[in-house]
Write a structure and sequence with these properties.
Layout lengths: L4 H26 L3 H21 L6 H37 L8 H32 L1 H16 L9 H19 L11 H20 L1 H4 L4 H42 L6 H34 L2 H8 L26 E4 L36 H4 L22 E3 L4 E2 L1 H13 L1
Antiparallel strand pairs: 1-2, 2-3
Helix pairs in contact: 1-2, 1-5, 2-3, 2-7, 3-4, 4-10, 6-7, 7-9, 9-10
Length: 430
C-alpha cells in the first residue's frame, strides 16, 4: 500500500532536520569537544530512530533497517564516553562549589576524578571507531539526501502535515506511548523499585519524543503537555543518575581499597580517600530521595488535576491542528502567497537528490547558505549527487549554487535558500 503523502512529508522534515543536527554534533566530537557533543549526539540519534519507527511504512525497508542499526550502534558506542563526561563534570563542579569546605573530602574526590579521566581516555579509541564506522557507511548522507529528495517532491502538492490522516495516526501513537508510561504508575509506591523507575524513565522519554514528532500537526495543543512530561522525565533521569552514582561509588571504594592494599600492603593509606567518597555517595542518595519525593508529589498532582485524561482528550478535537501556523508559504493576509515557488530550476533522476527542498526560514543562515554543507566531513554531498553545474542567485549574486538548489518565485527571479528564507521572514513581518 502506498504510504500517505502527508505522513511522508512530516517524516522527511524530521529526518532532514535531525540528520543535520547530528552531523554538527559529530563534527564537534571530531574536533575534540566530546563533553559538549557526545550526549546531544545520543539524544538526536534516538529521535531519528523514533522517526524511523513511527513512520516505518514511509521509508524503504532495507535502507531504514540499515540506518536504524547504525544509529543504534552509535548510541551504544557513545554511552561510556557520555557517562564518564557527565561524572567528571559533576564531581569537578562539586569540588568547585565546595571549595574551602570540608577539605578532608578533597583527596577522595580528586582521586575519583583522576580515575574517571583515565577511564574516559580508555574509551576514546572506541568513540573514534564508532564515528569512523558511521561515516564509512555513509548513513547520515543517505538519510539527508533521501529526505531532501522526497520532501522536495512532496512540497507544493496536496501533502499537508496537518491532514486528518496525520492527526489520526498522531493521536494513536501518543495515546499508546502515554499508556506505556501510565503502566508504571504503581512503581511510584515503592521508592526502592529501581529497575521499574529506570523503565519508567525510558517510557517518559518515548512519550515526550512522540509528542515532539507531532508538535507541528497539533499546533500549540501539545506545548504544555510536552513541558509537563519533560519535568517527569527529568526527575526520573535524576533518580536513575543517582542510582548509577551510588553503585559506581560503592564499586570504586572497593576497587581503590584493593589497589591501596596491593601497593602499600595494608588499607590504612586509603583512609584519607574515604571521607570524600562517602560524602559523595551519601549526597547522591539524599538527592535520589529528594527527586523521588518530588516525582511522587508531581504525579499525585497531575492525577488530581486529571492531566493525563485531559491531554488525551485534546488529541481527539476535530480542530486539533487549526491553531498550528502554516509551515510553508509566507503570507501577508488570508493565505495570499507573497513568494510562490513556481518550479525548481532542475530536477535529478531517481538515484540523485531530485533537488534540495526549500528550507524553513529558521534553518537558513542568510545569503549563500548551503543546506548540504558539512554532511560528509566538509564535503557538499548535494553537489556530489547533482550534475555539478553552477547557478546564480538573483538576490545575493552567489554563483556557487547547484541548479537544483535555487527556486523560481512568481516574479521569475531565482533565489537561493538563504535569500528565500529572508524574503519569507520579511513578508511575515509585514
Amino acid at each position: 500500500m502506498r504510504p500517505c503523502a502527508s505522513l511522508k512529508l512530516l517524516a522527511c522534515r524530521h529526518l532532514g532536520k535531525q540528520t543535520k543536527k547530528l552531523r554538527a554534533q559529530i563534527d564537534g566530537i571530531r574536533r575534540g569537544k566530546g563533553v559538549e557533543h557526545v550526549h546531544p549526539s545520543r539524544v538526536i540519534s534516538r529521535r531519528i530512530r523514533m522517526v524511523l519507527g513511527v513512520f516505518g511504512s514511509v521509508f524503504p525497508a532495507k535502507k531504514s533497517g540499515r540506518w536504524d542499526k547504525a544509529l543504534r550502534c552509535l548510541v551504544k558506542g557513545l554511552k561510556a564516553a557520555r557517562d564518564k563526561d557527565a561524572q567528571i563534570a559533576f564531581v569537578t563542579q562539586m569540588m568547585t562549589d565546595r571549595r574551602g569546605e570540608r577539605r578532608g573530602d578533597r583527596p577522595g574526590l580528586r582521586r575519583l576524578v583522576l580515575r574517571l579521566r583515565q577511564e574516559r581516555a580508555a574509551v576514546e579509541p572506541g568513540v573514534r571507531k564508532t564515528l569512523d564506522r558511521l561515516d564509512h557507511g555513509g548513513v547520515l548522507e543517505q538519510m539527508f539526501l533521501w529526505a531532501a529528495k522526497h520532501k522536495f517532491s512532496l512540497q507544493g502538492g496536496s501533502a499537508d502535515v496537518r491532514s486528518p490522516a496525520v492527526l489520526e495516526q498522531g493521536a494513536g501513537d501518543i495515546r499508546q506511548a502515554c499508556d506505556g508510561l501510565l503502566g508504571f504508575r504503581s512503581c511510584l509506591d515503592d521508592a526502592e523499585a529501581m529497575e521499574q523507575h529506570h523503565a519508567m524513565r525510558i517510557a517518559a522519554r518515548k512519550l515526550r519524543h512522540m509528542m515532539e514528532i507531532y508538535r507541528e500537526p497539533f499546533g500549540t495543543r501539545l506545548n504544555e503537555a510536552i513541558k509537563t512530561v519533560r519535568r517527569v522525565q527529568t526527575l526520573l533521569g535524576e533518580i536513575h543518575d543517582c542510582d548509577v552514582w551510588v553503585a559506581a561509588i560503592e564499586g570504586f571504594i572497593e576497587e581503590e581499597r584493593r589497589r591501596t592494599v596491593d601497593y602499600y600492603g595494608d588499607a590504612e593509606p586509603f583512609q584519607r580517600l574515604g571521607s570524600g567518597l562517602e560524602y559523595l555517595r551519601d549526597e547522591r542518595r539524599a538527592c535520589r530521595n529528594d527527586a523521588f519525593d518530588q516525582l511522587a508529589g508531581l504525579w499525585k498532582d497531575l492525577e488530581a488535576d486529571g492531566f493525563w485524561g485531559e491531554m488525551l482528550a485534546g488529541l481527539q478535537s476535530s480542530d486539533a491542528g487549526a491553531d498550528s501556523p502554516a509551515s510553508d508559504g509566507v503570507t501577508t493576509r488570508a493565505n495570499e502567497p507573497v513568494a510562490e515557488i513556481v518550479e525548481p530550476v532542475a530536477s535529478g533522476g531517481e538515484e540523485t537528490t531530485g533537488g534540495v527542498d526549500v528550507w524553513d526560514a529558521e534553518d537558513s543562515a542568510g545569503p549563500g547558505y548551503d543546506p548540504g554543507h558539512g554532511l560528509a566531513s566538509g564535503r557538499c554531498v548535494v553537489g556530489e549527487a547533482s550534475a555539478g553545474a553552477s547557478a546564480v542567485c538573483g538576490c545575493c549574486g552567489g554563483n556557487h549554487f547547484l541548479p537544483d538548489q535555487l527556486r523560481r518565485i512568481d516574479s521569475g527571479q531565482l533565489l537561493c535558500p538563504g535569500c528565500l528564507g529572508a524574503l519569507r521572514e520579511r513578508a511575515s513581518e509585514t
